């Protein structure tokens, strides 16, 4: 089967600044991989490169065996951006059914996607009348309705209450158990423990790539917040460079 995503020496420059600096990593199939890091660390740029909509300076990104952005991937990759990507003048149901039709799916699949994100009670509402968190979930339903092999989710739980966050993560893991690969970004470190594997980015560099348990063990602490702080401090630029030094300590694949 191989890995769902293979990134090698990825470089991205934007506005005269290096946004991603030589990132190499893999994302295994059928698992939830978390992309963690502070705001502005390069998470969204990394996801855009995986989807194939980001101009890259160097390196390669392979997705499901194809170069990122290949036409063959259009119906295999679902992408949820931070900004709502649905039509405000249509209802939640109309949006979901429209995107379902684009993927050759029917009304039943659209209605199921709405239910899966907890919006069944708001299916008849215009998206423009929804709260920010509800709009995000409407976008999520549209990203999932095509049953893609790979789902890229950029901050999917921002603005959601704790109960709904838990429900969404349960849904993500159910999808992974059924064979879907998920790459989920967050700047909220308490969501890291919900992932099967973690990629930690800071200032455009990969400083950790391993399971939550292995990262805690490498840092010598039980708390992931503290583990990340220690890895960040240990990964300050030095002779070996931050990414290389930390990947060596955690034993992560890159």
TrEMBL record:
Keywords: ATP-binding, Nucleotide-binding. InterPro entries: AAA+_ATPase (IPR003593), ABC_transporter-like_ATP-bd (IPR003439), ABC_transporter-like_CS (IPR017871), P-loop_NTPase (IPR027417). SUPFAM superfamilies: P-loop containing nucleoside triphosphate hydrolases. Residues 235-254 are annotated as: Disordered. Residues 235-245 have a biased composition (Low complexity). SMART domains: AAA (SM00382). Gene3D superfamilies: P-loop containing nucleotide triphosphate hydrolases. This is ABC-2 type transport system ATP-binding protein.
